[in-house]
Amino acid sequence: MSDHTHDPVNDTADTAEAVVRTEGLVKEFGSFRALDGLDLSVRRGEVHGFLGPNGAGKSTTIRILLGLMRHDGGRVRLFGGDPWRDGTRLRAGLSYVPGDVALWPGLTGGQCIDILASVHGGLRADRRADLIERFDLDPTKRARDYSKGNRQKVALVAALAAEVDLMVLDEPTSGLDPLMEQVFQEVIRERRDQGTTVLLSSHILSEVEALADRVSIIRKGRNVTTGSLRELRRHTRTTVHAVTRAEVTGLDALAAVADLASGRGEAGVDTRFTVGPDGLGDAVGLVHAAGVESLTVEPPSLDALFLSRYSDEPEQTGQSGQPGERPGKHAVREPA
Amino acid sequence: MTGGGVGILLRIQARAQWRRATVWVLAMVASMAFTALAVAGLYDTPAKVASYGEAVVSDALVAINGHVEGIDTLGGIVQDEFGFMGSFLLPLMGLALVAAMTRTEEESGRLESLLAGRVGRTAPVVTSLVIATVAIVAMVVGFVVSLLASGIDPADAVLYSLASGMVSLVFATVAATAAQVVLHGRGVYMIGFAVIGLSYVLRGVGDVRDSFWVWLSPLGWLEKTAPFADQQRWWVLLIPAAVSAALAAAALTLAARRDLGASLYRPGPGPAAASRRLLGPVGLAIHGQRGAFLGWLVGSVLLAAVMGALAQEMVDAALGNPDLSRALGITEGDVVDGFLAVVQFYLAIVAAGYLVQSLGTLRHEEVGGRLEPMLAGGLSRPRWLAAQVAVMLGGLVVVVVVSAVVFGATTALSTGESGYVGTLVGAGVAYLPAELLVGAVGAFLFGLAPRMFGLTWLLFGLVAAIGLLGPGLQLAQWIQDLSPLTHVGNPPSGTVEAGQLIGLAVAAALLGVGAFVGFRRRRIPQG
User: In chain A, what residues touch B259 (CB-CB under 8 Å)?
Assistant: First the structure.
């Protein structure tokens, strides 16, 4: 067993509120370090986006949270308990959609839904019927005859209809068409409004952007960044595209402005630039002074954020594994 | 808290596995009932019963069927007749039931969904053993009823049935432990088959040499309970019970400590790119069928080697009673040939089994979704199937010839007389058309009605049962004629008629053509 000494100083109200909490989580497969000091905190009632490229350690983290794997170092708490030791009791309060959905080929979709739900303390019949209708699923078909998307729907209906406090979803919309993705987002919002906590691991940034209250981005088993989208965006740049009657002057004097490009077009003066969060007001003021014909201000998308984090990070060479000062970690203050 | 959720998992697995378990129980009980009732019908007077034990055949086959104490009773005859089949079916039942509910389930990913709920890590092991035990108990009850219906004493019937159930139970726990150690369901079967083979060899050699080796084999424990002898040994049941308990405890300990998807043995990284050999339909077919081929080759060669090595001892045992031999007019040459023919027949069953399993890998390719992308490119359906069939046929010839050569060589060593290799290779090759006919039925089903492919195993079971039980139970000729193997003519002791072989080959070829035509037209994939 790894170190589980109780630390009363860290065990504050914040911990009590966290449905999921890992600190300095380490998992090794032979000589390969899959998790290298991962911190993750999911608060009660939030939708927490969990992002990272393939092989970053998302599924490994989730399996440790579910007590399916044992961690080699650090600390992990699920509902305040140890998922490896007390997993059976703790997991009664959650439902799960795995990255690869496997069903019983000879059973029908409806039977599979009931089986999957039964291991999570059952489901609400009204929700089951509602979700089957909204996801447009035929529950009388045999699982072997389902397409990939329909197998995914079976797992989703089972997880979303369950009466649980936490839903752990590992890339839950892979294989769903855009229409069904919309349904999925609606249902997640409804569940959140009812107080359910959601840990949403995903590659689809727009989905996380649409749903997540807070986001953790990991890479190579470590945190890259954590925070609300607003906080994360504070560290990235807004793209501005303006067409003005006169030339915009003074932009190059602003330190926050970069990538400035300007030219005369048919409709007026075409100006493009990016600006950091502290210079946005001044920059827009200067644009306004030049007489706006059209103005597009794009907040940094999660895609931009995701990509910038990865391209900015130097490759980690050493495996120091020390908690605290890790070069790859961006300290983002959590809101008070 | 690692063992919670057994109740939930039991309900789930009962729903998902009841069909498999029921088929096993019914097949086992049917085999036993059939054997017992046929024996009772055939040996309906004390004189006939007594004659069985004195017959040369049963003496010569002690290595194959086992040494039966109380062979002069009706029950003893049943035990002897069921001996060879039971040596494989009883272990296989325990193995298959548990493997399907543990590592195979984990490999498929279904276990991840279940263990993410209120189900503890050790629950799959507990559940699989509970369901396997229930199936085994049902089988034991069925055995007892079958034996009672044949007029066998209740106490004898119960001891024999219990001892048989214990064999299944030991192998259920072997599978449960193996499932914690290796990564794939296939690996569990490989370990299981290895233990079955070892048990069979230890029991066989131990019986012929009358050594303690018998006591090292789960099959030996069944034999040593001596259910039909004057002196029964009920206490021997404690050995498999203790071994099962120890193995179950080991499986539970390992399951409680390991990660999901982890194993003690894990293969290392492989080549980053496919070799030239792997590209192309033939290379891929070889890769897909390699496991089945090697497994059956090893099994077949092992059977041939052991039987060959024991040939002289078997003949000595048969001739141990000179009065009897003289009375029956048996010369040494006849006994040897009779023995070789029986073993050669078993080797033919093994070869047919290899074909059926290899065809099964094609079905696995389809169900696993790998056939679809293969055929989505420039590779035509007939070419893909032809490559697979070619690899299978090559494998069959290798299995048959290598086994015959090994059998001939070990027989020559054992008896000190040369010339067996040529005879036995000839006998082995003579069985090829019959083996191909069994395989062709499987190919035909795969080509036309792939979801019915499982029937091929039923056919194989019938062929094996008819072959193993037919002569001893003197089954009606029309039943024996249902098996293609019967038509070969029992070489090397019997005479092979070329006309029969040609007939078998033509039938196989016609079915083979049907397979290609059907495969060309049918919907792919059919899961």
Answer: 63, 68-70
Q: How far is CA B394 from CA A243, B185, B453, in A?
A: 75, 27, 22
Q: How many CB atoms lie within 10 A of CB A304?
A: 18
The residue ranges of chain A whose pLDDT is under 50 are 1-13, 15, 313-336
ipTM passes above 0.85: no
- C-alpha torsion B325→B329→B334→B338, nearest 10: -70
User: Residues 60 to 79 of B: which have CB under 8 A from any A CB?
Assistant: none
Task: Tell me, yes or no, if A318 comes closer than 8 A to chain B by beta carbon.
Answer: no
Question: Which tens digits make up the pLDDT trace of B263-302?
Answer: 777 777 778 888 778 878 898 899 889 888 999 999 999 9
**C-alpha–C-alpha distance, residues A91 and A120, integer Å:** 7
Residue B330: per-residue pLDDT: 54
Q: For residues A99 and B105, give the distance between their C-alpha atoms in angstroms, rounded to a whole number.
A: 16
Closest CB from B8, B115, B259 relative to A118: B8
- A106–B contact, CB cutoff 8 A: yes
What is the DSSP track for B369-384? T-HHHHHTSS--HHHH
| More confident position, B304 or B312 | B304
A31: Cα within 13 Å, side-chain hemisphere: 2
B269 touching A, CB under 8 A? no
Give the position of tokens 């794009």. A298
Sheet of A292-298: strands edge to edge? A257-264, A269-275, A238-244, A292-298
- CA torsion B431-B433-B438-B440 (nearest 10°) is 160
Q: Do B2 and A87 touch (CB under 8 A)?
A: yes
Cis peptide before A300 (omega within 30 of 0): no
* Among the partner residues A69, A89, A105, nearest to B1 by beta-carbon distance: A89
Using alpha carbons, select from A137, A144, A213 the residue that is nearest to residue A176: A137
- The residue type of A189 is R
